Amino acid sequence: MLQPFFDVCKLLRKERIIVNKFQDFPIILFLAFTIFAGALFFAGTDLLLTIFSLALAGTFFILGGFCVGSPFSHLGTQRELIQMVAYEPMVILAAVACTR
């Protein structure tokens, strides 16, 4: 039962390795746009703007994954990109249908 806590402690003790200088920039923008989208949603503003800011956050997440040279990072990023291409049009269509 305590194994997840041990895993988190081990993860927090690991050394942070920066592959290139551009690595942190897209991830910070991903976090900023995710928080911005959450603030827009809970403020009750336009739903389309909220969804587009979440899509932009996902784009920065993908960009951050591709800027690392690891093949595992590229594999996970391609999976995320395929997921976004699959679900994002349906989310936008549902939001347009709800706002009319």
- Average pLDDT, all residues: 88
Helical stretch count? 4
Distance between the termini: 49 Å
Uncertain ranges: none
For the largest beta-sheet, the strand count, sense and barrel status come to:
none
Secondary-structure element pattern, one letter each: HHHH
The count of domains is 1
Radius of gyration: 17 Å
Helix content: over 70%
Strand content: under 5%
Number of E-type strands: 0
Class derived from helix and strand content: mainly alpha
Shape: globular
Task: Give a concise summary.
The protein is an all-alpha fold and 100 residues long. 80% of the residues lie in helices and 0% in strands. The chain has helices at 3-13, 24-43, 47-66, 71-99.
Question: Would you give an account of this structure?
Answer:
By secondary structure, this protein is mainly α. The chain has one domain (22-99). The chain is 80% helix and 0% strand. It is built from four helices and no strands. It has helices spanning 3-13, 24-43, 47-66, 71-99. α2 (24-43) runs antiparallel to α3 (47-66) and α3 (47-66) runs antiparallel to α4 (71-99). The longest helix is centred in the C-terminal third of the chain and has 29 residues, at 71-99. The chain is globular, with a radius of gyration of 17 Å. The model has no long low-confidence stretch (mean pLDDT 88).
